[in-house]
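Supplementary Note 3. Input sequence used for the single-chain structure prediction.
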Amino acid sequence: MLSGRVLLVDDDQLICLSLGKGLEHRGYSVTTADNGTQAIEFLEKERFDVVVADLSMSGGGGLGVLRRSKELHPATAVIILTAFADLSSAVEALRIGADDYLSKPC
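The predicted structure, written as discrete structure tokens, is reproduced below.
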């Protein structure tokens, strides 16, 4: 069975619930945050193997979470999720250091 710590950040509770349950079912320990501000608070206190963050949400978006995660824990993988994928946001996320960029639903 897989193991690892995942921080899942999305203001859509349905996404957090469904994606979180799927990850837990596969053996991951999942912590959820409702917004970027809360995610950054978790990142400042704890270390995660992977951060999955929505690009656009209230309380700070995924790019802010990405930047802070890479400052605090450069080896942590960060995946950006978005329902509104476009080339410019993908390029910006990857330039900042995202490990992947996925369109919802995923």
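Strands lie at 5-9, 29-33, 50-54, 77-82, 100-103. The chain has four helices and five strands.
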